[in-house]
């Protein structure tokens, strides 16, 4: 498939993004409007001077009808302006831009861990289905999926940072790898389990196909059968899980970021919701929506690379 | 001795004492602390939270400041006079004070800063000054009660005498900023603050860390520390672990760990617990049935046993509440008595109100904001009130929703603590119970009592002293009988490494933020 042939489906997906973003922005705006709480009051701490509340509401046009507020926001967005944070009084693009690199690093590292470990565990389990190793590995995968992130983070932190002293307890530090290890392991654990289970079941399904039996009957080595013929064909569902997982991690991981004091987007979004900082919430949700759509687009493109049958279709 | 004389004497004594001698106190080093959240702003006019205030206090100075015993002492003003009628304060500025960008402080900066502050988020700090209200309403171009006498003298005239006015002048909202920098930066002053304080902003990585560097040209001389690093660590257990591994020099004690750290062979020597100016309370909206019936409010008061919460949930690390004013507050009366735990009396009151055994009362809703401790307190209250036949429905909301509900009178029975902005009973009783403050301004009980208003108005204007405190105590007793249940008084619970010296534990300073002046801190290692 040539680049020109790819351009059309990609363009279609990008165009489909417009109604998605519009719908999401409207939904978030309406949800915020019906939620109890006033950003002006939330900004003032324990003592809210009524005149100051009124002034803030006027300054941020919060005293205007909802549809005008939404239209104003949308008008700004069309000019490429995400607005100003109520709470931090600076551009939303600046607020999001500061957190994105930390989130990206964490998401990529967690995905790398999850993919490496998940594929290895899934393949090992699929090679001896029903055996002791399979049970142990799949048990571990279920534990990984079901362990609360907050608890796992604390335990890893206690073991490797407090007791052994090998790694920092928390923080972004100077961007060193040491600061990244524990949050990435914590965040990666959940997806490791999912990828391992998906790899195992998908590989098992392929292994039972006739062409695999034929390859074996031809006398091919088991490594070649699995590595060359079975694994590649079993990767489609795994790639879906990886793609969605990466998009999931890119929109932030508030609990992991809280335990490890990681300055990412997830923690920021939770704080912004608590402060009713609507411009930040809207801006963040839009960015997340774009990430999700682009993530699924990349997954679709990966299918084309992996599976020639899809290319032919 | 007149108040004016006493203030002169105090000022004189403190000037004689001078800055603390440096002998034996090490210079240099980095102090490492942590906050639970990122400061939203570093602009004194815009700050409303303790995290922002904790940093602002290191970077800016005020005309006066409060020492560890809460006495006003000279800061940017090296002396001041107060007129006989307590309405005119004249502040004489220290010579040679410089802002971080090098320019010398002038009296006009004080006027500019106060007018700018009045248009900020805490206008109540300046509203007692003549002409402030007109200025705020846009009817005047300046606050005419602030007069620049000369380059080093500012005269402030109050509408009426107000005993705690010097405390307001020590509040971080009254920090002095340089006119040209504030005007040039506009809203960006919040991220590029310039003050006269002993530290200046080094760097600020949002949600990660704020670094302050020593300002060596500070009017008191360079601080002992070279640098302060405040990290942003939201989880209290993570702050605790950072402290244990030696990456923080001080922190707060996590909820539920108070007794454990006091038993720990190492940490027990590093524990510091001291009372602060705050009270955890259960309030009623007295306009809302059935809480408009005083007997119902009193019945609930007599059915609650604060000791179960203080001794159990809070491990005895706070002070059980009897009155509204906390023990560290000037004017505190140890014999103040709110409703005592007496379930039989509570049942009688319920029956008198027409609800024997709670029958016919229906479930009552108790509102509180999210937080593990608040949840557990609410569950204890629910169990205790069941003892007299009252069914409590728990309604948990996040802070923004809770405060809106409470401000607008939507909650009948709710949790709302209070931490004083300055050490004066006015900041508790007048703010929280005067009828002019009904709603968001503080009186969320929506309590209206003309007799109480008169008492508070009189006390607010009286000269400082025992007679004034007595008036507040009378007011406190009226409120206790009528409108509020004081559960416990807050303490600050901290861990401080033994080598950290000079970290004040004032009742206005609470872990993990520590509003204490860190210029006094030095590291003995």
CATH class of the domain at 278-490 in chain B: Alpha Beta
CATH class identity of chain A: Mainly Alpha
Number of strands of chain A: 0
| Largest interface in this structure | A-B, 48 and 50 residues
Question: How many strand elements of chain B?
Answer: 20
The mean pLDDT of chain B is 92
The name CATH uses for the topology of the domain at 278-490 in chain B is: Dipeptide-binding Protein, domain 3
Low-confidence stretches of chain B: 1-22
| Secondary structure category of chain A | mainly alpha
* CATH architecture field of the domain at 278-490 in chain B: Roll
How many domains of chain A? The number is: 1
Helix content of chain A: over 70%
Shape of chain A: globular
By CATH's scheme, which homologous superfamily of the domain at 278-490 in chain B applies? Dipeptide-binding Protein, Domain 3
Per CATH, the architecture of chain A is Orthogonal Bundle
Radius of gyration of chain B: 24 Å
Which bin fits the share of residues in helices of chain B?
A: 25-40%
Task: Please compute the radius of gyration of chain A using only Cα atoms.
Answer: 24 Å
Helix and strand sequence of chain A: HHHHHHHHHHHHHH
Taking the sheet with the most strands of chain B, its summary is: 8 strands, mixed
The major pleated sheet of chain A works out as: none
């Amino acid at each position: 498939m040539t680049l020109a042939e790819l351009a059309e489906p990609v363009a279609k997906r990008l165009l489909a993004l417009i109604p998605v973003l519009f719908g999401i922005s409207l939904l978030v705006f309406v949800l915020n409007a019906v939620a109890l709480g006033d950003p002006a009051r939330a900004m003032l701490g324990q003592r809210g001077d009524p005149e100051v509340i009124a002034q803030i509401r006027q300054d941020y046009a919060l005293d205007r009808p909802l549809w005008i507020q939404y239209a104003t926001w949308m008008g700004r967005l069309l000019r490429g302006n995400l607005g100003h944070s109520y709470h931090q009084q600076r551009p939303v693009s600046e607020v999001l831009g500061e957190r994105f690199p930390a989130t990206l690093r964490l998401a990529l590292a967690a995905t790398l861990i999850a993919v490496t470990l998940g594929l290895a565990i899934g393949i090992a389990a699929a090679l001896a289905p029903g055996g002791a190793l399979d049970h142990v590995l799949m048990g571990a995968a279920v534990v990984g999926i079901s362990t609360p992130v907050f608890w796992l983070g604390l335990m890893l932190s206690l073991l490797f940072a407090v007791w052994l002293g090998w790694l920092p307890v928390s923080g972004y530090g100077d961007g060193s790898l040491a600061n990244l290890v524990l949050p990435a392991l914590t965040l990666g654990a959940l997806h490791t389990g999912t990828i391992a289970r998906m790899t195992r079941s998908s590989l098992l399904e392929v292994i039972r196909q006739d062409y695999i039996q034929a390859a074996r009957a031809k006398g091919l080595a088991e490594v070649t059968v699995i590595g060359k013929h079975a694994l590649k064909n079993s990767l489609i569902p795994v790639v879906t899980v990886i793609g969605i997982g990466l998009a999931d991690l890119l929109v932030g991981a508030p609990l992991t970021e809280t335990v490890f004091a990681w300055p990412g987007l997830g923690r920021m979004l939770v704080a912004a919701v608590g402060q009713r900082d609507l411009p930040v919430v809207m801006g963040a949700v839009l960015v997340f929506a774009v990430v999700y759509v682009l993530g699924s687009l990349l997954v679709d493109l990966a299918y084309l690379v992996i599976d020639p049958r899809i290319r032919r279709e | 001795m007149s108040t004016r004389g006493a203030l002169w004497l105090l000022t004189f004594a403190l000037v004689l004492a001078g800055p603390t001698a440096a002998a034996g106190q090490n210079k240099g080093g980095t102090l490492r602390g942590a906050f639970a959240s990122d400061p939203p702003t570093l602009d004194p006019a815009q700050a409303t939270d303790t995290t922002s205030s904790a940093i602002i206090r290191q970077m800016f100075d005020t005309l006066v400041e409060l020492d560890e015993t809460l006495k006003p002492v000279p800061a940017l003003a090296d002396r001041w006079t107060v007129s006989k009628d307590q309405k005119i304060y004249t502040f004489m500025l220290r010579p040679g004070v410089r802002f971080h960008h090098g320019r010398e402080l002038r009296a006009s900066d004080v006027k500019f800063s106060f007018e700018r502050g009045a248009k900020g988020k805490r206008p109540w700090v300046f509203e007692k000054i003549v002409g402030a209200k007109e200025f705020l309403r846009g009817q005047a171009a300046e606050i005419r009660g602030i007069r620049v006498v000369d380059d080093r003298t500012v005269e402030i005239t109050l509408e009426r005498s107000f005993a705690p006015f010097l405390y307001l002048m020590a509040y971080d909202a009254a920090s002095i900023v340089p006119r040209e920098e504030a005007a040039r930066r506009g809203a960006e002053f919040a991220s590029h603050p310039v003050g006269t304080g002993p530290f200046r902003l080094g760097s600020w990585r949002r949600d990660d860390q704020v670094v302050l560097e020593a300002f060596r040209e500070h009017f008191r001389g360079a601080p002992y520390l070279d640098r302060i690093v405040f990290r942003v660590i939201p989880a209290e257990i993570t702050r605790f672990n950072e402290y244990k591994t030696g990456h923080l020099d001080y922190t707060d004690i996590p909820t539920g760990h108070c007794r454990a750290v006091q038993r720990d062979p190492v940490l027990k020597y590093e524990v510091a617990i001291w009372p602060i100016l705050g009270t955890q309370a259960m309030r009623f909206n007295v306009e809302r049935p059935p809480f408009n019936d005083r007997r119902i409010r009193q019945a609930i008061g007599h059915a609650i046993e604060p000791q179960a919460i203080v001794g159990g949930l809070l491990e005895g690390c706070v002070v059980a509440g009897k009155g509204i004013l906390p023990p560290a507050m000037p004017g505190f009366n140890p014999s103040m008595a709110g409703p005592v735990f007496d379930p039989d009396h509570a049942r009688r009151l319920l029956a008198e109100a027409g609800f024997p055994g709670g029958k016919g009362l229906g479930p009552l809703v108790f509102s509180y904001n999210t937080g593990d401790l608040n949840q557990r307190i609410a569950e204890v209250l629910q169990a205790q009130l069941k003892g007299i036949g009252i069914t409590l429905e728990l309604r948990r909301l996040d802070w923004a929703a809770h405060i809106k509900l409470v401000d607008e009178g939507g909650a009948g029975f709710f949790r709302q603590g209070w931490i004083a902005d300055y050490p004066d009973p006015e900041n508790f009783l007048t703010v929280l119970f005067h009828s002019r403050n009904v709603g968001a301004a503080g009186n969320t009980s929506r309590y209206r009592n003309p007799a109480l208003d008169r008492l508070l108005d009189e006390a607010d204007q009286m000269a400082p002293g025992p007679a004034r405190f007595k008036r507040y105590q009378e007011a406190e007793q009226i409120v206790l009988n009528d409108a509020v249940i004081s559960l416990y008084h807050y303490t600050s619970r901290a861990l401080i490494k033994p080598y950290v010296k000079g970290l004040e534990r004032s009742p206005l300073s609470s872990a993990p933020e520590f509003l204490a002046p860190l210029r006094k801190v030095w590291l003995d290692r």
